[in-house]
Amino acid sequence: MNGADRLCETLLANDIDVCFANPGTSEMHFVAALDRRPQMRCVLGLFEGVVTGAADGYARMADKPAATLLHLGPGLANGLANLHNARRARTPMINVVGDHATYFLKHDAPLASDIDSLARPMSQWYGRIGRAEEVEAKTLEAYEAAMRLPGVATLVLPADAAWGELPAGAPPRRASLPPFRSVTPEAVRQAAETLRSGRRVALLLTGRALRADALATADRIAAATGARLLMQTSNSRVERGAGRVAIDNVPYPVDAALAALADIDAMIVVGAKVPVAFFAYPGKPGLLVREDCEIVDLARPGDDLAEALAWLADEIGVAAEAAVRVSRGFTDEMALPGGTLTDDAVALAVARMLPEGAIVCDESITAGARFFGLSQDSAPHDYLRITGGSIGIGIPLAAGAAVACPDRKVVALQADGSGMFTVQGLWTQARERLDIVTVVFANRSYAILEGEMRNVGVNHFGRNAERMLTLDDPALDWVSMARGMGVEAGRAETVEDFVRLFDGALRQRGPFLIEAVV
Amino acid sequence: MNGADRLCETLLANDIDVCFANPGTSEMHFVAALDRRPQMRCVLGLFEGVVTGAADGYARMADKPAATLLHLGPGLANGLANLHNARRARTPMINVVGDHATYFLKHDAPLASDIDSLARPMSQWYGRIGRAEEVEAKTLEAYEAAMRLPGVATLVLPADAAWGELPAGAPPRRASLPPFRSVTPEAVRQAAETLRSGRRVALLLTGRALRADALATADRIAAATGARLLMQTSNSRVERGAGRVAIDNVPYPVDAALAALADIDAMIVVGAKVPVAFFAYPGKPGLLVREDCEIVDLARPGDDLAEALAWLADEIGVAAEAAVRVSRGFTDEMALPGGTLTDDAVALAVARMLPEGAIVCDESITAGARFFGLSQDSAPHDYLRITGGSIGIGIPLAAGAAVACPDRKVVALQADGSGMFTVQGLWTQARERLDIVTVVFANRSYAILEGEMRNVGVNHFGRNAERMLTLDDPALDWVSMARGMGVEAGRAETVEDFVRLFDGALRQRGPFLIEAVV
Asked: Which of A459, B337, B378, B481 could make a disulfide contact with A484, Cβ separation 3.0–4.6 Å?
């Protein structure tokens, strides 16, 4: 048994049995150790952004971390953009980053770099194993941090700690995970008082407060007090659709967000961050609530958000069995416009046709903007979105969710510009036979940036702006790219095409991609 | 005029007229400023690894930096792996990384991250602009650092420094670039003494010491003294082929490298690093020269390497017009084996058919290993290689070299595994109509890692090792992927196929990809 074996066993002892990986030479002992443990499912990504994005999607659905295996500083660097999203989603994840042997670092070999400096910005927890004897303790520490901070834990495994021999010992410890932190009675009382104050109050939710049961509790509180329910602009996972509570998010466009929050006198935050703009704009505020809006912290990340809501409901005297206002599902006849395909037609078709239990992974950016509103009456589903604004999460996120939930259909709504960032993830979908239908909104531009250019006063684009904001020369042929990576695909140019392809994709198992030309 | 305008003008005043870009919202004022200056050529990459890899290839051939435009921490993060390669190559480059407005950072908006911590590991120079008034001075500082350290300069441009208004003023300053540093007479004397000592001496070159003229000088020194000429394992650019001096590199495999250097008593380094292994292996040394090998520093990066060699030649009394031993070119008849395609057949065919003035970008890893040896008698060409071991440089490197040298054919030798890391770069090749033929060695595995697994004693791969080291399920269809991004392509399964496709690609202009199934 060596350090790498011990690492695998410690992960397995704590129910971590999926490892998304892109290994290199410095991780060969770890690969060999994984190879000795077929109960660990190793999933290869052909680029590390696929690896980390998939680990994010997996954990959002599995409520436990996957491990990742990343090769030295550059491999970690390739995974950082999606770690940024995972960090913002507070997704539990354990990244195992291989490093050179400790005694070898002094040589500054070609692949050496400052892993610590690279890892810290995108990790909620960071640690480095010194030698094989420390593997188990450090791995448990990473696991507890991932589960309870919660968030991204990055653990560096030097090659000599991986190959270092260990005496055969007791099996690794299963971590005695502490429960999520309870909020204080004072925080609950203060929130209750705010709700009773007669002011206009919003409850701002995120994280596990967006699971169906917690949302029902929040709705009972809102119904009893007249408070408004809101969630962050971007959230890790929302349980929604027919029979569940509908909740709006804080709008992304800064003017819309300011308008939506203008009348709020007090905001009770439940694991959430006080809303701020995504970007600064000259002459516009960064804070989206009024300066005089009172912020009341009911719960922070790492607190038991569902429990906090239940206590708050209790404090204000709402019966646990009080009725909940839920979405009713689509009641009218299917009324899709025919003919030329548009963003909205795709969004509406997907919303109407969404199968029960689907997992929607949404990186449709501008093109699918209307989907969220249209789908509150869809069949019950989970909704996963890009959380940190770092594009290139969609294809891997869908892959990870599909690994976590093999019996559920994953529907990925994908903008073309962002999809290209981790297009290699389609291959992983094919290799693992993942049950995903990817809808690419092929608008052939960075549409969001075209809007932002107009925001800075540029309405007539010259050659350089055209060259940086459009993707139409040449047009990306998503059908060819998908087939090139082993994913069946079709192109839709009319609503009828789209409905036929989407229906077919829902009826089959395995990955399918639809290029929706909009 | 705003800060972004001033940045563009300062770049242009210093002959920086190419900007590889992937912009985001925080860079819209910079995009608008670029759009007002059509003399700046903006080249879009659909992923930042394409952007930074292309900037590397451009500067290796242009001997001046390109600018890059990267979006915040995550955009920079996506570009880091190829910045790692550029840092190791000491490629001059100016990365402009957009950031949130300075006053907005306190909000920790979704896309905020610690850019400083991310940038420093992969940058030889790092700076942050505080406000519009500082743009010109900081940009000049970045330029001088890029040119004279030389290396990667990363400059953060906050949105408010970009949009901050400036009074119309004098045109920006052209930097008065200091010359490359001269080495000391003492260093030259010591190197000369070493060469005269009667010991077995190697001259280890890199950087501009590998241009044809400097190599000729080095060869005269070697011929006169019996010293051996060597270059680093990986180098930025080598001028070689028929009529030029042939030089071997330090082998990549550790055992071969140790054997190659075992008899060296003294090593004179010319801009190079003392050879160390790429990776540590249990029981094997990290340093590739003998412990008692004397290291003599003739020149360091940033020194004038060509001048240092000329001075050394002068010191030991070698006439500047002394004969040079050069490669003679292929003298025998074209003798390619026919039939089934192999790595070696591809390498030999490319070496034989290489057109004069070609730029070879080599990321063929294991599959093209023999090309370097076979091509010393090819037509005169430049040879560019992955320098930092961070895979995913090949496709972008070729794109950048082609932008720098529109009249030369670029031949990219590309392993399939590493090619997938930045496969999006094919689209940039198509959009810019770059004259590149990409040869993909489709061995459908991480062949180098299969070898490394055997190095750690694993000869029978189980399911997990298979799943992490092979790429054959499903096989990547490079022809479809290339066509999907607008690049013409063909597949070769026999030598005859390959020769026909390669010949056709050489005769046409524009990008073409050959999937060589080996």
From this structure: B481
- Which strand (E) or helix (H) includes residue B272? none
- pLDDT class for B334, splitting at 50, 70, 90? low
> Tell me: the pLDDT tens digits for A7-65?
999 999 999 999 999 999 999 999 999 999 999 999 999 999 999 999 999 999 999 99
Q: Which top CATH class is B185-315?
A: alpha beta
Cα(A164)–Cα(A154) distance, integer angstroms = 20
| Identity at B174, one-letter amino acid code | R
- Contact call for B234 and A110, based on CB within 8 A: yes
What would you measure as the largest C-alpha separation in chain B, in angstroms? 70
In one-letter notation, the amino acid at residue A504 is: G
DSSP state of A423: T
Return d(Cα A442, Cα A355) in angstroms, integer.
23
Closest partner CB to A74 (pick from B81, B277, B278): B81
Tell me how close the Cα of B91 comes to any Cα of chain A, in angstroms: 15
pLDDT of B169 higher than 90: no
Q: How many CB pairs under 8 A join A and B?
A: 316
Kindly indicate the confidence band of residue B405, based on its pLDDT and cuts at 50, 70 and 90. very high
Alpha carbons B204 and B271: distance in angstroms, whole number: 8
Separation in Å, CA of B336 to nearest CA in chain A: 30
Tell me, what's the pLDDT at B76? Answer: 98
Architecture of domain A343-517: 3-Layer(aba) Sandwich (3.40)
What is the number of other CB atoms lying within 10 angstroms of the CB of residue B255? 12
| Residues across chain A | 518
Of A25, A101, A474, the CB nearest to B431: A474
Q: Which residue is associated with the tokens 């900081």?
A: B138
Q: What whole-number distance in Å separates Cα of residue A276 and Cα of residue A232?
A: 10
Q: Show residues of chain B in contact with A118, CB under 8 Å.
A: 80, 117-118, 121
Going from N- to C-terminal start, the domains of chain A cover: 3-163, 185-315, 343-517
Tell me what the mean pLDDT of segment B485-492 comes to: 98
Best of A29, A78, A233 to disrupt the B interface by mutation (most B CBs within 10 Å)? A78
- Whether residue A445 has pLDDT greater than 70: yes
Which residue of chain B has the CA closest to A117? B117
- Contact (CB<8Å) A467/B44: yes
Q: How confident is the model at residue A366 (pLDDT cuts 50, 70, 90)?
A: confident
Pairwise CB contact (< 8 Å): A110 & B163: no
Q: Which helix (H) or strand (E) holds A460?
A: none
CATH number for the A3-163 domain, one of 3.30.470.10, 3.30.565.10, 3.40.50.720, 3.40.50.970? 3.40.50.970
The stretch A443-462 carries a mean pLDDT of 90
- What one-character DSSP code corresponds to residue B379? S
**What is the side-by-side order of every strand in the sheet holding A238-240?**
A238-240, A381-385, A358-363, A410-415, A436-442, A512-517, A488-492
User: How far A89 CA lies from chain B's nearest CA (Å)?
Assistant: 10
Query: CA nearest A501: which of A511, A491, A487?
Result: A491
Contact A47 B388 (CB under 8 A): no
Longest pairwise C-alpha distance within chain A? 70
3-state secondary structure A199-245: CCEEEEECHHHHCHHHHHHHHHHHHHHCCEEEECCCCCCEEECCCCC
Asked whether the beta carbons of residue A21 and residue B484 sit closer than 8 angstroms, the reply is: no
Nearest C-alpha of chain B: how many angstroms from A334? 34
Provide the pLDDT for residue A64.
98
Spell out which residues of chain A touch residue B34, defining contact as CB-CB under 8 Å. Answer: 464-465, 468
Give Cα B13 to chain centroid, integer Å: 26
